[in-house]
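Possible race condition, two jobs.
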Amino acid sequence: MTIAFTHLDRIYIDGAWHAPGGGSDPVINPATEATFAHAPVANVDQVDTAIAAAREAFDNGPWPRMSMNERADVMADMARALRARQSQIAELIIAEVGCAQPITHGMQVDNPIRLLEAAIGHARRDEPERLPITITPNAFAPDGPQAIGGTTVVREPFGVVSAITGYNFPFLLNLAKIGPALLAGCTMVLKPSPFTPFSALLFGEIAEEIGLPKGVLNIVTGGIEEGQLLCTDERVDMITFTGSETVGASIMAQAAPTLKKVHLELGGKSAMIVREDADVQRAAGMAAMMLSVNAGQGCAIPTRHLVHNSLRPAFAATVAAIAGQLKIGDPADPSVAMGPLIRESQRAKVEHYIKLGHDAGATLLCGGKRPDGLDKGYFTELTFFDDVTNDMQIAQDEIFGPVGCIIGFDTDEEAIRIANDSRYGLNGAVETADAAKGYEMALQIRAGSVALNGGTGMMSDAPIGGYKRSGIGREYGPHWIREYQHEKSVFYPIGK
C-alpha cells in the first residue's frame, strides 16, 4: 500500500514543483526500519531561489496587502482542505513518526487543525488599537492654543519568515508556523526535519488547491548547509524554530549578524508535583500515560515526578504497574499504546541516559531495556527511576524518550525549589486535593504553562511557550499572530 503524500518527489518553490537539486533520501518507518518512500532533497541554490521567491512575494505580491479577513478566508479554505485529508495525514504520521494511533488521530492531526481554526477566528478580530485623545502644550508656541491629537497602533506583517521544524509532531509544528505567519501577511520558506519531510511537502498540494499566491509558501528540504542559509540570508526577516536548545542557540548566533527576529520553542524537563493530599492512583496513571505519548518524544511532557515522600512508595509501585501494562509495538496495530523512537541514534541516546541513571545510584523501577520480541524497529521500554536526586543528569538533561524520574520532597516550598532548579521552563503540573493551594503553587513555577489537576486538555485559546532555555516567544492563543507582526504607531493631529 502506498502511503498518502509519498508521491511528492519534488520541492515546492514560487507556486510550482521543482526537481530536487540534491537528489533523494530514503524515509524510514521507525517501527519496521523499512524504507517506505524516497523524499526529494533541495540544494543550497534552490533554497536561495525559495528565499528570493518569498522576498518577491512579500515586497511586490498581493498577500501582505490583502485585508486580514481576505487572508483569513484563504486560510479557512486551507483548514477545510486539511480536514478533508485527516485520515490520510494520520496514515502518513503513523509511518513517518511511528506514533500510536490514538495520539496520532488526536494530538498529531485533529488538534493542529483545531488550532488553525481558532487562529483564524482570533485573526478576524485583530483590529488597530486607538489610544486615548491627548491634549498637550504646543512646543513651538507655548502661550498659544494647546494641541489635540490621537494615536492609532496598527500591526503589519513582519516580512519573510524562515521556519525550521522538528520530527516529533511534524504536522503540528509545520502548521503552527504556517498558520499564524500567513494570517499575519508574512511569506515563508519552510524546512522540515529530514526524518519527516512529507508532513511538510503536503502543504504544497494544499497551497495549489486553495489558490495561495505564488511565493507565499515555499517548502524545501535539505541538511545543515541549507538550514544555515535560511538563518543567515539578509533577505530573511525572522526565523521561527522548534527543536533542541542546542540548535536553537546556534540559530540565534547565525541570526545575530543580520539582527533577525528569532522565535524559538525549545526543550523541556517539566516537573509534575504530587502533593501529599493528591490521589496517588490518578497521579501515577497520568504520569505513565503522559510519558508514553510519542515514546516520550515531546518537549512539554512531564519527565520529573516530584512526589511527596509519604506517597512516594505507592506512587512508584503504581506507576511501574501501569507502565508494564501499556502495549509497545508497531502503531499500525490500533491497540498499541506506545510506538518506537524516531531513529537508532535517538534510541542510543536514551539508552545512554538509562546507564547514567544506573551509574548515579537511581533505582530502576521498570523498563530500562529493549522490549522482548521486537527485533525490528527503534523500540525501548517505558522506564521509570526512583531515588533520583535533582542534580543527576537524568533529572537535568532533556532525554527526549520515555524515561521518567521520581524525586521525593517533604514540603511545598521544597517541591517548588526543585521544580525551578532546571535550565528549562516549558511546562509543569500540580496534583492536589487543594485546588487553591495548587493554583498558588502554579504561580510560583517558572514555566510557560502549568496544568493543575490535569488541566483542560485544550490550548487553542492559551499562549504556550518557554522560560529560560525553553524558548523565546509564544504560540497559540488570541495574540499568536502578533509574533509575526510589527507594531506601528501613527500619530495625528485633530482639527487644525
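Job #2 (started ~2 s after job #1):
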Amino acid sequence: MTVIAILVFALVFLVAMLLLLAGSSRQMQETKQTVSRLDSLVAARRAVKEENLDILRREGASIAWVDRFLDRISIFPLLQRLIDQAGLEWTAGGLAIGSVACLACVAGGAYWQTGLAALAFGLGMAAGCIPTAILLKKRTARLGAFEQMLPDALDLMVGALRAGHSLNSALGMVASEIPAPVSMEFRKCFDEQTFGLDLRAALEGLTERVPIQSVRIVVTALLIQKETGGNLAEVLEKAAEVSRERFRLQRQIRVHTAQGRMTGWVLSLLPVALGTALYFMDPAQMSVLWQRPIGQKILCGAIGMTCVGGLIIRKIVNVRV
C-alpha cells in the first residue's frame, strides 16, 4: 500500500508539474509575442517620428549640409528650439551661416584697417554673435508677450469651465479667442489632445515650447488637479492671480532697476562711440592704439574691462521673480 501511495503521489506530482510547465511556457510565449509587438510598434513610431522630423528639416532648412553637421554635433535641436520659441521662420543652418558671414566680414575689415589679428578676431567674434543676440531678443519679447496675455487666457478658460465646457474645449476657445503667441501655443496643445495625445504629455510639451515660470505653475496646478481632483475653475483662477502678481512684480522691479540698466548700456557703448568718433575726426592720432605695443595692450584691457563691467551690471539688475 505504501508503494502504491508513493506511485500515485509521484504520478499526481508529475502531472501537476507538466501542467504548470505547459502553462508557464504558454504564458512566456504570449509575453514574448506581446513584447515583440510592442517593440515593433515603438520602432514604427520612432521611424515615423524621425521621418516627420526629416520632412520638417527638409521643408525648413535651406542649407542641408549645414543642418546635418549641426545635428551631428547636437546643436541643431537647441538652435531649432530657440528659433521656435522666438516665433521666427529661420533655420539652424541659416543662423549658423549668418553668424559666420558676420564674423568673416567684420574680422576681415578690422584686419584690413588695423593689421592686428587678435583685435580683428575679437571684433569678428562679437559681430558673429549678432544673429544669436537678435534671436534671443526676439525670444525674450515673445515669451514676455505670452506671459502678459496668459492671465486673460486663464480667465477665459475659467469662464468656459464654469459654463460647462470641458478642459479641451476651453483650450480650443483660448486658441481661437486670444491673440498670438498664446493662441499658437494653445492651438498646438489643443490639436495634440484632439489627435489622442495624453493631457500630461501635451502640457509638458507646452512647458518645453514656453519655458516661463507662469506656464510651469499653471501646468503643475492642472496635473495636480488631475491626480487629486477638485474644482478646476478655482485652480485656474488662483493660477491667473499668481501670474498677474508675478507680472506686476516684474514690472515694478524693472522700474526700480531702469537706472542701473541705462547705466550699464551707457558705460558699455560710450567708449565705442567715442573711439569711433575720434577715429573719424583724427585717424592718425587714434591709430596709435593699435600701431604701438602699449596701445594694443591698453585697447585689449579696455575692451576686456568694459565687457566684464557690463556683465556685472547686468547680473546686478536682473532680479528673478
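The longest helix spans residues 2-60.
Logs attached separately.
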